[in-house]
Sequence to fold (301 residues):
Amino acid sequence: MINNHDIITKMRVLESFSVLYRSFAISQQSLENIKDILLNNPKEALKFFLTYAYGGRQGVPKWFLLIAIHCIEDVYEQNDELAELEEEIQTRFLEYHGSANPSRNPLFSTSSRSSAISAFNFNDIWNHLQNGEVSTAYNSLIGINGIGPKIAAYFLRDVVDFFGIDISNWKEENFYNFYYLQPIDIWIKTVAHELSLQVSDSEIPSNMEAGERDHRPYIVGICNTCLSNNINPLRFNQGSWFFASMICGTPSVLTHILHNFSPQQIIERALSFKIVYTTLNWQEFEEQVRKIIQEIGAVSQ
Fold:
């Protein structure tokens, strides 16, 4: 059993891995430029979204994303309205790959859900996020074919964090916003379970809409514990995913390390991967964890 002080310290260490996640996921030197492209170029915004729509789903081959981008580029010309190209893009996808799985493919629509081609609008999502209307942005993504709670939360989490949406007042004014920004997969579930972060069903708000029903104990537990201990829940989620999937690699290794390693040992083990991931921002990571180690030393004296 991990004691409570160790849990919070390990959570802070996991939060610091978000530095590595961000340098793994997107160029930090050009974030403002990327944001401007997304706001002013619907084609590029759609392609950016599709990296999450396809890339974040278990079992979806990478080439689905690649084919989708080829299809968009094949038929799009400057100033085209994407919605008017929907059928042409879909036809091209089927020409490239006959098995499009249209019932779950974001480029296709169904009787109840729209395609990303016609329904995805980055500017609308951005405006909702800036206004603290996270549930509205979330529900607009859930309405797209093939997009479930995990992908919606995954995309919105990174947009909010990467592009500087102000979340400073959410804790007091819009606490539930954080619930919509917690993608839950096997890695996050394992971290939450091993650190005893999940709550009981009775502690879940009765009107909660964010996440799959069986993921809500993890979402609420993570957000509540993070916000009670001055930990950014978005970056804890990012960092936990990076550490679990990219450093540990299997749930059994993750469980072993969380149970048996001290916070300092977790950091040392991560640093042994510098030669494996040479393009990541290890310098900023080391600066952050150095502060944590100093604080641990001060408390233990």
Observations:
- The chain has a mean pLDDT of 90.
